[in-house]
Amino acid sequence: MQLASFLDARILFVEPHPKTREEIYSEMVSRICKINPLPVCGAKLVDLVLERDRESSTAYPTGLAIPHVRMEGLNDTILSICILQHPIDYDGTPISMIVLIITDKSASRIYLNIVAALLKASKDPEVVAQIRTCRDGHELLSTIKKLEIRVKENLSIQDIMIPNPVTIGPDAKLSELGRVMNEHGLAVLPVVDAQNTYLGEVGVINLLKVGVPDYLMMIDNLNFLSNFEPLEHLFDKEDIVTVREIMYANHVTLSPSTSIIEAVTLMIRYKCRFFSVVENGKLVGVLTAMDVFSKVFKA
Q1: If DSSP codes are grouped into helix, strand and coil, which group holds residue 229?
Q2: pLDDT score, position 218
Q3: Residue 213: what pLDDT?
Q4: 28 near 80, Cβ under 8 Å?
Q5: The predicted structure's pLDDT at residue 255
Q6: Distances in whole angstroms, Cα of residue 117 to Cα of each of 3, 107, 148, 191, 275
Q7: pLDDT under 70 in the chain at which residues?
Q8: How far apart are CA 196 and CA 283, in angstroms?
Q9: What is the pTM for the complete model shown?
Q10: What CA–CA distance (Å, rounded) separates 55 from 290?
Q11: Which residues of 128-146 are buried (b: 16+ CB within 10 A; e: fewer)?
Q12: What residue spans define the domains of the chain?
């Protein structure tokens, strides 16, 4: 279906003057409530939008913010769009386009599909440039129709995964692995070759195991280790051992078209919170349990 099918020119607008986030939300809510009899309107609805913003950021690095509210028994999905000629700072992210979505609590799939379509469009410089030239709601609606921005019927992990993730090469030494993990705050990294071919994964546990002598793994009572320094073993080897020697090869992967429910099932089955997403042998992204939680459940 087309994104334009969810839009009404009367609640799309271009804001030429500097405004606060609350002022923009108030204008959006006012326009929506004039033509839609919602269970909650006015200042109370604005407060709900701001409250959702406080729970977690609704801003994206592409300059798009997608605040939203779910209402019981609404049985509709309403979108208001504001193009800002003076960007608003969303906790360090400059936002030039706001899309307020108000939907029914049971409409999770359509909401997520709309978000996925908006994010994809916001990454296309040509699409953004055309939208930014619009002067009013009618022109904005006409432009979106011409761009034929589509909302998918079904959602896959491609819509919520992390594209272009941080990776490590198989010949990297453990010292480099530790540096990359520490620098990016990551506990697991996909291992790829120079052509981005997926080879496996390596985690911080793999790294730490290098510092623990094999015989310790066979001892049940480890109380005597309070003064033992097994990680000195790791320090001795970090510039000798390579990622290839400690990585997991042939690890379970997902394809971009994997459904979200299938991905969750595999996470539970394999007790795995991190999956590499692979297409035709090449790494295209990663998916974590927190991605599912924050982008689907908490969304």
Answers
A1: coil
A2: 47
A3: 57
A4: yes
A5: 94
A6: 8, 16, 11, 30, 23
A7: 106-108, 153, 211-235, 296-299
A8: 6
A9: 0.64
A10: 15
A11: beebeebeebeebbebbee
A12: 3-153, 162-297
Q: Measured between alpha carbons, how far is 95 from 263 in angstroms, rounded to an integer?
A: 32
Smallest CA-to-CA distance from 46 within 114, 97, 88, 102 is with 102
pLDDT computed for residue 149 by the predictor:
92
Q: Confirm if 202 and 191 have CB atoms less than 8 A apart.
A: yes
CATH domain 162-297 topology: CBS-domain (3.10.580)
- Alpha-helical runs (H) found in the chain: 21-35, 42-55, 108-122, 125-132, 137-147, 174-184, 204-209, 232-237, 243-246, 260-270, 289-292
How far are the Cα atoms of 188, 271, 279, 281 from residue 285, in angstroms, in the given order? 13, 20, 9, 12
pLDDT one-digit tens code per residue, 248-285:
887 789 999 898 889 999 999 988 999 999 999 999 99
In angstroms, what CA-CA distances link 83 with 18, 45, 129, 133, 197?
A: 12, 21, 12, 9, 40
* Tokens describing residue 249: 């090869």
Give the homologous superfamily in CATH for domain 3-153. Answer: Mannitol-specific EII; Chain A (3.40.930.10)
**Which pLDDT score is estimated for 230?**
56
